[in-house]
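Preliminary data (for renewal application), flavin mononucleotide complex.
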Amino acid sequence: MNTSVKYLGIQLKTPIIVGSCGLTGNLDNILRMQDAGAGAVIIKTKFEEEFAYDIKHNTTTLARTEIYGEAYDYVESIHHGYQMDDYFAELNKITEAVSIPVLGSINCISLESWLNYVKNYELVGCKAIELNMAMRPYDILTTASDVERTFSQVLQTIKRVTSLPVAIKLGSCFTDMARFIQQLSWSGVQSITLFDTDVWMAMDIENIRYAPMPIEHHIEDLDSTLRWISILSKKTRGTLSAATGIDNGDDVIKALLAGASTTQVSSSLYRHGIEHITTMQKALEQWMQRHNFETIEQFVGLLAMKGADNASARMRIHAIKSLFEEE
Ligand SMILES: Cc1cc2nc3c(=O)[nH]c(=O)nc-3n(C[C@H](O)[C@H](O)[C@H](O)COP(=O)(O)O)c2cc1C
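Predicted structure:
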């Protein structure tokens, strides 16, 4: 049985990859992920503010740090003496020590400091870059076209500064989301990751305040991931990678049936341990065996939405049917 897939032009031995998170921040964990059978790992993200810090403190170039507001102040308060050179040296060690592909990850919201560092990912042996374009619709003064313009400028620019394949990771709120994602898929990005989750706080109702949300309490919306992949997988260029809500082997199979090329796991590994990757892989293989599939491509997209141009009408039928059948 062959579970290999092609993602961002790279051959992976399984579609199960580890999404960017705290666990992918060090070599020991990444070696365990490799041993457990992960197809690839996406390294813990560097935030745009951290690149700005490096420019301001370790170079003679001016950095526009004021555009990040409090987020920059926070990074500055914890990053005393931090050097991006050290980070890339560490990343180099990781890519040399493991045989599975390592992808860089950058969380960006503008066309500022981080672009100067993109080439470094290539030089230290990353096989691709995932841009977590964390533009969210929270600002009253930001319009949909402002957001779309930034996406388009970032994509045009990044292609000029690296020859690595680029994936974009999106949040799940956009105006005209189906059209927007389709258009994005045609603008030079090789894969789109659906979705990044929004970090929210826990409400402490006894002390009437917000508190950090423990990871095990994050509510992951697999339904939303599956719905969008199913709607868009036949309508987009390049591939879609399913993130958010993948907890076990069945979820991996569902995402592939919906049309994802790969699946990304993060919080599931916090809950069940890194070795859970092996359990997911076994479940995938056993299911393929039961259904006589020898390769992944034989079943990817079998449950992608048919007639996705009229997805709203199809969703309406589902809504009506489920309400009538409930009575
Ligand atoms: C503890 C934690 C840290 C994360 N850190 C990052 C990060 O550095 N960069 C990023 O793009 N996504 C990050 N994520 C988001 C995950 O990559 C993923 O998109 C999200 O958790 C949904 O997938 P899941 O349901 O498998 O957790 C993080 C998630 C968790 C739980």
